[in-house]
Amino acid sequence: MATASSPAAFADATRDETSLSRFLQGLPGVDQVGVEARAASLGTRSIKKTAKLWAIDTAISMVDLTTLEGADTRGKVRSLAAKARRPDPDRPDTPPVAAVCVYPDMAATAVEALAGTGIGVASVATAFPSGRSSREVKLADVALAVDAGATEVDMVIDRGAFLEGRYGDVFDEIRAVKQACGDAHLKVILETGELATYDNVRRASWLGLLAGGDFIKTSTGKVSPAATLPVTHVMLQAVRDWYDATGELRGVKPAGGIRSTKDALRYLVAVHEVAGEEWLTPELFRFGASSLLSDLVLQRRTQHDGHYSGPDYVAVD
Amino acid sequence: MSDRVSVAKTYKLYIDGKFPRSESGRTYPVTDSVGGFLANASHASRKDVRDAVSAARKAFGGWSGATAYNRGQVLYRVAEMLEGRREQFAAEVSACEGVPTAEAMSTVDTAVDRWVWYAGWTDKIASVLGAANPVAGPYFSFTVPEPTGIAAVLAPQSSSLLGLVSVLAPVVATGCTAVVVSSADRPLPAITLSEVLATSDVPGGVVNVLTGRADELGPWLASHADVNAVDPTGASPGARVDVAQQASGTVKRVLTVPGDEPDWTRRPDISRLRHYLEAKTVWHPKGT
């Protein structure tokens, strides 16, 4: 196993497969009842007026506007890019989103459509969404995305290997993908809906962080349940602990199932309370979503106009 | 034998086919015409308005897309259920409006007849308001009426059942979906009507019933950009001005209503149906 870039604090943990296994198995267990109760109680917090406006704008700037369908066309990617640049054309002060997230073969189209805007292009890779393919194919997938100009790569971990306990394989794969990414940011998708327990989510989060993922991401959006608040709590705790141990800031991206502004605000409260204020930036927290943006724009209008808006007035995709 | 303690009820709202409490948590006591306690009702807030409108929007596609014949069948079914609860409605109308039971019973019967009358119009109104237009060219030109969208209905304050049915039935008969604010002081028939709707075949969200103050909720409904028509019947004269002003921010149909509540027992006409329909004209090339 390559250990070159593991922070000194965890050099021991990543020395070989046995010690990695021991480290991950030795992580404290997650108190399921506690984390669910805490997530639910933070979810009841009420955010109003200027704080709400700030939160909506922040949430818009954190959206990875996503289209991952078999029916994606270049035209659809281009229209998504247009929406990413100006989520609400009637109100030019609406911030642009963080990135557009597409399949690797659409990355070039997205890069072209977003040139000069500062909006990132994220491409899923490594045989997304199942991750069931050989290492060569996965790395070729990554190369396809990076060569097309993707600035961020969303990889899926091999859940099969993880559940079998072959942590070393998963670790090496993330390492290899990270290397293949070059300058592109790497987001590691844990697919928490398939990991079964919060303990596994915590282990997978640490595995992703140890192997060098810049972000850990909950889900592909293709498996139910996708992102949930308690799972995101566990992952936020991991990046917080990582920061405390190493001084490095890593990000979290919940994806899938976040459709309303209300949901998004609950996540922002969790980010603030579990990880900390410094994570309230698109560099360290993202929403993987498609329909969320429309609702954020609707609610932003409601706040500014003083009356409720409707889906007739925004671009609903 | 000791006297039985009766169950004092706290009724809830009817939104999206479910019976939620008001988001505000508010309730208010409902009294009969001489001040005796009848029940508690939820006091709806603007958040409930918001939820009801999104439920109505969600239901609009299915309800407006259903065939007119199907809508008619569903509405006849509602009339059957109304008839089945005749005694309960009569007791509530009698208590709320302070009329003798016999008169209340006749009001209920008129209300059922009114519902049937509007149910019958579902598949006939297109023939009356639609047209094949004569045009000077090789085209067919048709005009067909289409439902306006979401209607906010401020139900009459005094006529708690017949008035309510007279303003609600034309909305759903055309294929529109409704957010109804019931009479504030006499909400019980509206609550029972929502129980009827919930147990008949009307899809959830087609009719949403809020109990509360029309003057408080009316302006929020009128300013809501996703509401397409407003019937301000139940608002006070001052609040009607407010409703009209708030409605002017969007393209919204505001029904012109008389200053005082009309006599609801009078034979209805199709003017209310017409109010909730838009004329769509289609030109189609004629083969030569």
TrEMBL record, chain A:
Pfam families given in the database record: DeoC
Pathway this chain belongs to: Carbohydrate degradation; 2-deoxy-D-ribose 1-phosphate degradation; D-glyceraldehyde 3-phosphate and acetaldehyde from 2-deoxy-alpha-D-ribose 1-phosphate: step 2/2
Catalytic reaction equation(s): 2-deoxy-D-ribose 5-phosphate = D-glyceraldehyde 3-phosphate + acetaldehyde
Leading EC class: lyase
Protein's UniProt keywords contain Lyase: yes
SUPFAM superfamilies: Aldolase (SSF51569)
InterPro entries: Aldolase_TIM, DeoC, DeoC/FbaB/LacD_aldolase
Enzyme Commission no: 4.1.2.4
Alphabetical keyword list: Lyase, Schiff base
NCBIfam families reported for this sequence: deoC (TIGR00126)
Family: Belongs to the DeoC/FbaB aldolase family. DeoC type 2 subfamily.
Protein name: Deoxyribose-phosphate aldolase
Organism: Prauserella alba
UniProtKB/TrEMBL annotation, chain B:
Keyword match Oxidoreductase: yes
One Pfam family it belongs to: Aldedh
Keywords: Oxidoreductase
Domain Aldehyde dehydrogenase: 26-255
UniProt xrefs under InterPro entries: Ald_DH/histidinol_DH, Ald_DH_N, Aldehyde_DH_dom
SUPFAM superfamilies reported for this sequence: ALDH-like
Protein name: Aldehyde dehydrogenase family protein
Organism of this sequence: Prauserella alba
